[in-house]
Specification:
By secondary structure, this protein is of the alpha+beta class. It has 5 domains: 179 residues, 3-Layer(aba) Sandwich (Rossmann fold), CATH 3.40.50; 85 residues, Beta Barrel (Elongation Factor Tu (Ef-tu), domain 3), CATH 2.40.30; 74 residues, Alpha-Beta Plaits, CATH 3.30.70.870; 87 residues, Alpha-Beta Plaits (2-Layer Sandwich), CATH 3.30.70.240; 95 residues, Alpha-Beta Plaits (2-Layer Sandwich), CATH 3.30.70. β12 and β13 form a beta hairpin. It has an 8-stranded antiparallel beta sheet with strand order 11-10-16-7-8-15-12-13. A 6-stranded mixed beta sheet has the order 2-3-1-4-5-6, sandwiched between helices. The protein starts with 6 loop residues before the first strand and ends in a 5-residue tail after the last helix. It contains 14 helices and 31 strands.
């Protein structure tokens, strides 16, 4: 039984690459939570894809025991969170399970866009925040300038910010002391009915569904029967453990503690993130408020290359959706690609990560269709439809107007690249709202259409600013614009996987790019293939793929010229017939490459 005053729950928040996971490694190492021989860099990033890309995707939790200077041993529950804008949902969930945050800022880079976004989430969750300046050992570090910047831009007192180097371990003991002295202990009533928050759940092939919980009130013990308040499902607890990254069994979890349990739960979807867990018999009366459901912003179709793998794909997507609450899916069919799923993501990086995980962890080859956003279509009869897939666009004579989602984007950029960034935003139909300076860096706020950002805006932004700009966005609502559906026709057949919504002013250049690219990507056949981009019945761009020619006269040695002519005429007639019946094979790569727009 742990005294509440000896527990501290905290998360680490920061911009991408400012050293969250490395700081977590040092805290784990210094307290001896993991034996030295098991220590490795980014210990909490357990997925292959996290280790390869060097990013955190899932928020991970670990319990650390720390003997403080006052002679007491404290239990510290740490949740390491992702920094990327696409995984902001993981961050917001983790925030609700803890009371305080370490704000890590790179002493060479200063405050970035995601630093701001993540700090505001911590402030929303009512956290006590301890600023930490990392990478203090680098010659380019400017701690005083960055302290001033934290105070100016974020508005929290940074005079006591702790200078550390997570790589070398400098200053880590001060961080541990600050956690114990500056962060508040959790509140909770041991004698009240059980009330625990479901923070995360994932599928383990040995244990079934593993559920990560934070106990608010009451006590949960092994062998008890518990109930999920949202779904009403009842389970017996088979295993109760805390994560020291490895599971360590424990008899009970009291208020303020974070741990995991398994209860032979078969489906991950039975464990809704944000649900409240209570006892079956003596339940609590009021559920916890839970989390705002995540709103997917990017949709795309995922289809198996081999149609026989559809069932495998369904299983894989279901398992993955358990593990990732911000990923949504529904079935769809396509004339070109067969059966598949229409999936919703929080951004393009999220899409890439989910696709990579499906291909790797479940060994399925996938085709991804063009990412698109959700449009709102107002019909003439006054009804409103949501359009997830441009191929489902209703007849234009019935449509009154179309609205597209807009975002508010905050970009922090060094002064010398400001012109390029403004030009990029203007090219993407952006409307400038604000431009202020924090030191030598400009902070630009733009109102942009999400459709223009979803594709390759982030990559373009990084390349025009040599990687120095940082970018964060949130949805603001819908606005009417002059949007049209552009179709791609190959050999007079529409290819539904390549249809997309574009702005009418841009349609021609977008269509031209698309057909030129497809001309390079589609292999030549024995007949001529027209590749066209069209809006409704009007073709706006066309390329023709010339035919392969087989030498049918090779077997003629000299002799009469009419023999050759006869063979050529026969070939010509055959080609004409092929042209009518010829089906064009479009390779897999063509779909993906045609959609990468290099403006």
């Amino acid at each position: 039984m742990t005294d509440l005053s000896h527990i501290r729950n905290f998360s680490i928040v920061a911009h991408i690459d400012h050293g969250k996971s490395t700081l977590a490694d040092r805290l784990i190492q210094l307290t001896g939570t993991v034996a030295e021989r098991d220590m490795k860099a980014q210990l909490l990033d357990s997925m292959d894809i996290e280790r390869e890309r060097g990013i955190t995707i899932k928020a991970n939790s670990v319990r650390i025991e720390y003997p403080a200077k006052d002679g007491q041993t404290y239990i510290l529950n740490l949740i390491d969170t992702p920094g990327h804008v696409d995984f902001g949902y993981e961050v917001s969930r983790s925030m609700r399970a803890v009371e305080g945050s370490l704000l890590v800022v790179d002493a060479t880079q200063g405050v970035e866009a995601q630093t701001l976004a993540n700090v505001y989430q911590a402030i929303d969750a009512d956290h006590e925040i301890v600023p930490v300046l990392n990478k203090i050992d680098l010659p380019a570090a400017e701690p005083e300038r960055v302290k001033a910047q934290i105070e100016d831009v974020i508005g929290i007192d940074a005079s006591h910010a702790i200078p550390i180097s997570a790589k070398t371990g400098l200053g880590i003991p001060d961080v541990l002391e600050a956690i114990v002295t500056q962060l508040p202990p959790p509140k909770g009533d041991r004698d009240a009915p059980l009330k625990a928050m479901l923070v995360d759940s994932w599928y383990d092939s040995y244990l079934g569904v593993v559920v990560l919980i934070r106990v608010m009130d009451g006590v949960i013990r092994k062998g008890e029967r518990i109930k999920m308040m949202k779904t009403g499902a009842v389970y017996g607890i088979d295993k109760l453990a805390v994560l020291k990254p490895q599971m360590v069994d424990i008899a009970e979890l009291g208020p303020g503690e974070i741990g995991i349990f398994t209860g032979s739960i078969k489906q991950v979807r039975d464990t809704r993130v944000g649900d409240t867990i209570t006892h079956e018999k003596r339940g609590c009366a009021v559920a916890l408020p839970g989390f705002k459901p995540s709103i997917p912003v990017v949709f795309c179709g995922l289809f198996p290359v081999d149609a026989n793998e559809f069932e495998d794909l369904r299983d894989a997507i279901e398992k993955l959706a358990l593990n990732d609450a911000s990923f949504t899916y529904e079935m769809e069919t396509s004339a070109a690609l067969g059966f598949g799923f229409r999936c919703g993501f929080l951004g393009l990086l999220h899409l890439e990560v989910v696709r990579d995980r499906l291909e790797r962890e479940y060994d399925i080859d996938l085709i991804t269709t063009a990412p698109s956003v959700v449009y709102q279509i107002y019909m003439r009869d006054g009804t409103l439809r949501e359009l997830h897939n441009p191929a489902d666009m209703p007849d234009l004579t019935l449509v009154d107007h179309i609205e597209e989602p807009r975002i508010k984007a905050t970009i922090l950029v060094p002064d010398e690249y400001l012109g390029d960034v403004l030009k990029l935003c203007q090219d993407r139909r952006g409307i400038q709202e604000d431009l202020t300076y924090a030191g030598s860096r400009a902070m630009v706020v733009y109102d942009l259409p999400l459709n223009e950002v979803v594709f390759d805006f982030y990559d373009r932004l990084k390349s025009v600013t040599k990687g120095y700009a940082s970018f964060d966005y949130h949805l603001t609502g819908y606005r009417q614009d002059n949007l049209v559906k552009m179709q791609v026709l190959v050999n007079d057949e529409p290819v539904d996987a390549l249809s997309m919504m574009v702005h009418r002013d841009r349609a021609e250049s977008r269509g031209r790019q698309m057909v030129e690219k497809l001309k390079e990507l589609i292999p030549r056949h024995m007949f001529k293939i027209p590749i066209q981009a069209a809006i409704g019945g009007k073709v706006i761009a066309r390329e023709t793929l010339s035919a392969l020619r087989k030498d049918v006269t090779a077997k003629c040695y000299g002799g009469d010229a009419t023999r050759k002519r006869k063979l050529l005429d026969k070939q010509k007639a055959g080609k004409k017939k092929m042209r009518q019946f010829g089906k064009v094979e479009i390779p897999q790569e063509a779909f993906i490459n045609a959609l990468k727009m290099d403006s």
